[in-house]
Amino acid sequence: MRFGLQLSPPLSLALHARSQIPADTIPQTSTLRAPTSTFSSSTTTTTTAAAAAAAMVSALILLAEGTEESEYTITYDVLVRGGVSVRSALVPPCDSAYVTCSRGVRIVPDISLPCPAEAVREYDALIIPGGAKGAETISSSSDVHALIKHMHDAGKVVGAICAGSLAIQAAHLAPGAKITSHPSVKSQLESDYDYREERVVVSDRLITSRGPGTTFEFALALVTTLVGASKAQEIAPPMLLPSV
């Protein structure tokens, strides 16, 4: 995934997430043996790398024209800091190689919906950011509805923030569950869910939050659920966030 700033051509930049670095390019401990070792097994190294890649928790984050970029980028960043491999998926329509978010930031998604069923199985979590226009596109997508149901039925985590919670409702997922969202869409959700106004609401494998200002807390809740509380506590202080 690349981020392009729209300010002016000289200021354009692209960043590749660390989670996309192939596991077999990362030095493995099996190659850093003590001097007494007489050989380094390439087979062992390859096996160790493959096992590490297979064990890594992964998440798929959705993206559409008009997605709220802070909710997308902060969640992506914090998940990577927490050791989660993250990929982005475009929810059509989009008539260019990049998505233009609600404040003009351009992001190039990794893949596009619909995804083959076998490709979806590798992910442990599905994340849905907000942004009025982006949430409308995501919530109205039948491919997204099927993906949400598949992930939930498979015991995976589903997270939504801001107006992204409308996609949970559109997929008819977990009616009656505790949920939250941006206040602007509260009235659309409270008839079907146990609506709460906490900054982050965790209801079994459904995690929801309110908006841009609660994104760090939302992302840390995802890390806690996917990786563990100790990892969330480890990564919060370097970001100058309160301890969790």
Automatic annotation (TrEMBL):
Q: Which GO terms describe its biological process?
A: glyoxal metabolic process; response to oxidative stress
CDD domains, sorted: GATase1_DJ-1
Q: Which SUPFAM superfamilies match?
A: Class I glutamine amidotransferase-like (SSF52317)
Spell out the reaction equation it catalyses.
methylglyoxal + H2O = (R)-lactate + H(+)
One GO MF annotation is: glyoxalase III activity
Question: Which InterPro entries does the record match to this protein?
Answer: Class_I_gatase-like, DJ-1, DJ-1/PfpI, Prot/Nucl_acid_deglycase
| Residues spanning the signal sequence | none
* Domain DJ-1/PfpI: from-to ranges: 58-224
Q: What class of enzyme is it?
A: lyase
Q: EC number(s) of the enzyme?
A: 4.2.1.130
Gene Ontology cellular component annotations, sorted alphabetically = mitochondrion; nucleus
Name of this chain's protein? D-lactate dehydratase
Organism per entry = Moesziomyces aphidis (Pseudozyma aphidis)
At the highest ranks, the source species' classification is:
Eukaryota, Fungi, Dikarya, Basidiomycota, Ustilaginomycotina
